[in-house]
């Protein structure tokens, strides 16, 4: 089962995908074509949004870092998210803005002191994120800092959440990013340094993960700098394709 | 309860910036910070006044940094400093609890986001006068620390303006305006009181896991 969050007739609503993902069934039974829906990020308002840096061995090498112990975890606010087919502003001076295709695990039931062996039982579903980075704005304070990673609508998320039951092995999924149809990332979740179960175990050692909380699990290699007007697609096997377009900043 | 994001800022304390000026030129920093250095407190951190805060067995003493939380009433996006307070609708005392960490290089999610690590006092209307008041912390009824937001390198209005230049502070978000670098520490069994003229006081007690 796939669940999307959409804006429809003046409300934000969750809806199930039906008819080979061509239609949405709302809670009241009404079925609408996906073309009538505006996609919202499939997130529970108030959820904590964790993200991983340097969590793929190949990307770590590409950026010239040594694999980090402990894991590099940062957080995002709700303002950072934007739904499928949304737009993201590319600032005029962001010549080093690149997409990062990531598997997102969504917590399904509270987790505290959960071992890695039981951790996947706490996952409710999976979705896709494009965690854009703008390298010009990196500073060596709480890096990656919020000026890079928490700009409004710079983290496309969606298109929907696939139930965890439909993804039996989250560590064997092909993920790709395409810019204007050209492949710029092609990796496998097999190459994560700390896998989904390990991340939940690690986080839940010190805090309670709540239903709806999200973990963006990091990105494989492939740094491609984008321009305004580019169409950026992130796709993960078994989940879907997340489409975003970069737009120029409005001049002040 | 807060419905939005909870943001805080470090390295916004003038005496600390003076003290660390030499460090900023050295690795891993290599240059002084330009943008406000922000962190996020997650929803599991929220606690109300008079709560017991559980300290896990791996923690002995924690940093207890008393500060002010400003509640946004309307969104601040690319807002001018002069208009910043138009976006602030309320204020509260906050005790930002963290595992002591001397490095500012990597985000401190694990250190800052344990359950209950952000008790908040009751919200009141925002009066800019509180930004000149003294925020006092007492541990077991002994006055232990006092500071004033007058120490902030970016005052509250500048902070809102500067943050809003690159991201939105939305209505419902809470902004913790800065931390004193000389914040005291507390441990198991300690009771902490925070007070500031014009705001509802805050009290919490630290207890071990399992001993309700």
The structural class of chain A is mainly beta
Output the CATH class name of the largest domain in chain A: Alpha Beta
CATH superfamily of chain B: Fumarylacetoacetase-like, C-terminal domain
CATH superfamily of the largest domain in chain A, by name, is Fumarylacetoacetase-like, C-terminal domain
**Total number of strands of chain B:** 13
Total domain count of chain A: 2
How much strand content do the residues of chain A show? 35-45%
**Number of domains as seen in the coordinates of chain B:** 1
Instruction: Indicate the proportion of strand residues of chain B.
Output: 25-35%
CATH architecture of the largest domain in chain A: Alpha-Beta Complex
Mean pLDDT of chain B: 96
Range of helix content of chain B: 10-25%
Question: Which key phrases capture this entry?
Answer:
heterodimer; A: 252 residues; mainly beta; Fumarylacetoacetate hydrolase, domain 2; 2 domains; 12-stranded mixed sheet; 5-stranded mixed sheet; 4 helices; 19 strands; 40% strand; globular; B: 212 residues; 6-stranded mixed sheet; 3 helices; 13 strands
Descriptive report:
The complex is a heterodimer of chains A (252) and B (212). Chain A is mainly beta and 252 residues long. Chain A has two domains: 1-39; 41-248, Alpha-Beta Complex (Fumarylacetoacetate hydrolase, domain 2), CATH 3.90.850.10. Chain A is built from four helices and 19 strands. Chain A has helices spanning 57-62, 116-119, 146-149, 196-206, and strands at 2-8, 11-18, 23-26, 31-33, 38-40, 49-53, 72-76, 81-82, 86-90, 97-98, 101-107, 123-130, 133-134, 155-163, 174-179, 182-188, 214-216, 231-236, 240-248. In chain A, the strands form three sheets. In chain A, strands 1, 2, 3, 4, 5, 6, 7, 8, 11, 12, 14 and 17 form a twelve-stranded mixed β-sheet that branches. Chain A has a five-stranded mixed β-sheet with strand order 9-19-18-15-16, with no helix packed on it. In chain A, strands 10-13 form a two-stranded antiparallel sheet. In chain A, a hairpin with a 2-residue loop joins strand 15 and strand 16. The longest helix of chain A is centred in the C-terminal third of the chain and has 11 residues, at 196-206. Chain B is mainly β and 212 residues long. Chain B has a single domain (6-208), classed as Fumarylacetoacetate hydrolase, domain 2, CATH 3.90.850.10. Chain B has helices spanning 14-24, 109-112, 156-164; strands spanning 6-10, 37-41, 46-48, 51-55, 61-72, 88-98, 118-120, 135-139, 142-147, 174-176, 185-187, 191-196, 202-208. In chain B, strands 1, 2, 5, 6, 10 and 11 form a six-stranded mixed β-sheet that branches. Chain B is globular, with a radius of gyration of 16 Å. At the A-B interface, strand 7 of A face strand 2 of B.
């Amino acid at each position: 089962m796939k669940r999307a969050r959409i804006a429809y007739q003046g409300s934000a609503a969750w809806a199930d995908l039906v008819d080979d993902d061509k239609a949405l069934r709302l809670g009241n039974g009404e079925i609408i074509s996906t073309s009538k829906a505006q996609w919202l990020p499939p997130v529970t308002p108030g959820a904590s949004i964790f993200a991983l840096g340097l969590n793929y061995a190949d990307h770590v090498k590409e950026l010239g870092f040594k694999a980090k112990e402990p894991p590099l975890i940062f957080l995002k606010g709700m303002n950072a998210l934007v739904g499928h087919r949304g737009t993201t502003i590319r600032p005029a001076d962001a010549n080093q803005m690149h997409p990062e295709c990531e598997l997102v695990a969504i917590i399904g039931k509270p987790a505290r002191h959960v071992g890695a062996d039981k951790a996947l039982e706490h996952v409710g579903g999976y979705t896709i994120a494009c965690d854009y980075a703008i390298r010009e704005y990196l500073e060596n304070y709480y890096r990656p800092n919020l000026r890079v990673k928490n700009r409004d609508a710079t983290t496309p998320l969606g298109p929907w959440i696939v139930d965890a039951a439909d993804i039996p092995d989250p560590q064997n999924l092909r993920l790709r990013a395409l810019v204007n149809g050209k492949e710029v990332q092609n990796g496998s979740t097999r190459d994560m340094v700390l896998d989904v179960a390990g991340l939940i175990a690690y986080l839940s050692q010190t805090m309670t993960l709540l239903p709806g909380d999200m973990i963006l699990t990091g990105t494989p290699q492939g740094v491609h700098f984008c321009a305004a007007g580019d169409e950026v697609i992130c796709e993960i096997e078994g989940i879907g394709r997340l489409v975003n377009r970069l737009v120029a900043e409005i001049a002040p | 309860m807060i419905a939005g994001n909870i943001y805080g800022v470090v390295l916004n304390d003038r005496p600390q910036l003076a003290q660390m000026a030499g460090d900023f030129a050295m690795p891993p920093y290599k240059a002084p910070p330009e943008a406000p250095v922000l962190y996020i407190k997650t929803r599991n951190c929220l606690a109300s006044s008079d709560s017991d805060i559980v300290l896990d067995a791996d923690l002995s003493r924690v940093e207890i940094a008393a500060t002010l939380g400003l509640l946004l009433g309307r969104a601040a996006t690319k807002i001018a400093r002069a208009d910043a307070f138009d976006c602030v609708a309320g204020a509260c005392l906050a005790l930002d609890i963290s595992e002591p960490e001397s490095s500012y290089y990597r985000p401190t999610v694990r250190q800052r986001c344990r359950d209950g690590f952000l008790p908040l006092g009751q919200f009141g209307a925002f009066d800019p006068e509180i930004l000149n008041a003294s925020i006092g912390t007492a541990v077991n009824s002994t006055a232990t620390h006092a500071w004033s937001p007058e120490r902030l390198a970016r005052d509250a209005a500048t902070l809102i303006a500067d943050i809003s230049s690159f991201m939105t502070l939305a209505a419902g978000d809470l902004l913790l305006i800065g931390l004193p670098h000389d914040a005291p520490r507390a441990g198991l069994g300690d009771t902490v009181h925070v007070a500031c003229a014009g705001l509802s006081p805050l009290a919490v007690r630290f207890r071990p896991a399992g001993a309700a």
